[in-house]
Amino acid sequence: MPEISIVLVEPLYEGNVGFTARVMKNFGFTQLVLVNPCPLGDDAIMRASHARDVLENAQRMTIEEIYREFDFVIATTGEVSKSVCTPMRMPYYSPAEVREIVADIDGSIAILFGRENWGLANTELARANLICTIPTSKVYPILNLSHAVGILCYELANLPRGTYPLAGPIEMDSLYQHIETFLDKIDHPDFKRENTMLLIRRVLGRTKLTTREVSTLHGLMRRTEWHLENKE
Amino acid sequence: MPEISIVLVEPLYEGNVGFTARVMKNFGFTQLVLVNPCPLGDDAIMRASHARDVLENAQRMTIEEIYREFDFVIATTGEVSKSVCTPMRMPYYSPAEVREIVADIDGSIAILFGRENWGLANTELARANLICTIPTSKVYPILNLSHAVGILCYELANLPRGTYPLAGPIEMDSLYQHIETFLDKIDHPDFKRENTMLLIRRVLGRTKLTTREVSTLHGLMRRTEWHLENKE
């Protein structure tokens, strides 16, 4: 399988952390990462049941560290109403589509789940490679956290190890920095900058660039920059 | 959607019943049936959250009533080791396969989930049309009840209404009775009877017979019986 970690961002209820550990192990996942979680006590241990090891081996990381360490980051969000088609949460992919997309990745993947009451902040979502939304009923779309984790784990279980060598987070960061500089050079307006970068991150994020492709994109931008600087 | 009911058979923990109601409603299902459940109190209501209506409208039925009332009954079981290939629990289908199978049904479907500690009894399984097993890790295959329900609901959500007119439970019962009588007439040995009937129930159960097909099978048996009785 690709190395998939489940990341809970500021979970509020220890019972949900325990249930998450359990359902992860049910589908063969053992790498749990916690970002600033609630205190974990007996209730978490009880609900983890025979997945106490997953709970106890959970790593603590910051959002910054997650985007620095993982090759591919998937952020989950609740279903958004059609009227809120912001580039922050669109386009989104179903768990089955995510399975297709990540199936051939050879690299580390993090799946982010937000707080029980309001999910992930835009700042936590912005750098994700792609957004995943579990299709739910409009009448009552709010899944319990551990049920959402369970459905992702069910879909992503038993993936064969991919062979697709992803560019790492450092390479991708340097590409995005280059693009930002490039946008400066073509006088891209400041007020549009954030949304444009978000869109570029989403498009390039989900295309799963290889190291070679990243370097080709750098080359194309450098070539364009040369012509911009040397125009008569 | 086909009319799908979720049936919990003797659930032991009210929290799981509440969580079940919630995850059902998350995927658009509202018909919960309880067979001899534990007492339901505050914990069930709390975990049902905004699906309190599903919990409160839950019907109480017996296993007998379920097999009498529903056109198609799916029994869920934990994954069985390969060494226990009994006809009782084999062959089994994954939730995705079940989706394919039930997709075109026009009729009422019940999905049975057993007790948290030991699942469904053989007597409760025996008459099911088919067996569904969620593929899990061998290391820790025991899913929490509500997580198992959630995965089935996720797979079966948003099915279009089928157009396939199933023979009802009364017609199917009369077919199985005819087959039993027929087996008597051909001196089928008693000690094999139970397993043979189980196999026949499974095969005919999952083929989703129409009323017309049932009557053709009756006709074929009657014709054979006539020849058995009128042989020289």
What do you see in this structure?
- Chains A, B: One of its GO terms (cellular component) is cytosol.
- Chains A, B: It holds the Pfam family SpoU_methylase.
- Chains A, B: Residues 4-154 form the tRNA/rRNA methyltransferase SpoU type domain.
- Chains A, B: Keywords: Methyltransferase, S-adenosyl-L-methionine, Transferase.
- Chains A, B: InterPro entries: Alpha/beta_knot_MTases, RNA_MeTrfase_TrmJ/LasT, SpoU_MeTrfase, tRNA_m1G_MTases_N.
- Two copies of one chain form a homodimer.
- Chain A is α/β, with parallel strands linked by helices and 232 residues long.
- Chain A folds into two domains: 3-164, Alpha/beta knot; 169-229, no CATH class.
- Helices cover 47% and strands 15% of the residues of chain A.
- Chain A contains ten helices and nine strands.
- Chain A has helices spanning 14-26, 42-48, 52-56, 63-69, 95-102, 122-125, 145-156, 169-185, 190-206, 211-229; strands spanning 3-9, 31-35, 59-60, 72-76, 92-93, 105-106, 108-113, 130-132, 164-165.
- In chain A, the strands form two sheets. Chain A has a seven-stranded parallel beta sheet, with helices on both faces. In chain A, strands 6-9 form a two-stranded parallel sheet.
- In chain A, helix 5 (95-102) packs across helix 7 (145-156).
- The longest helix of chain A has 19 residues, at 211-229.
- Chain A is elongated, with a radius of gyration of 19 Å.
- The termini of chain A are far apart.
- At the A-B interface, helix 1 and helix 7 of A face helix 1 and helix 7 of B.
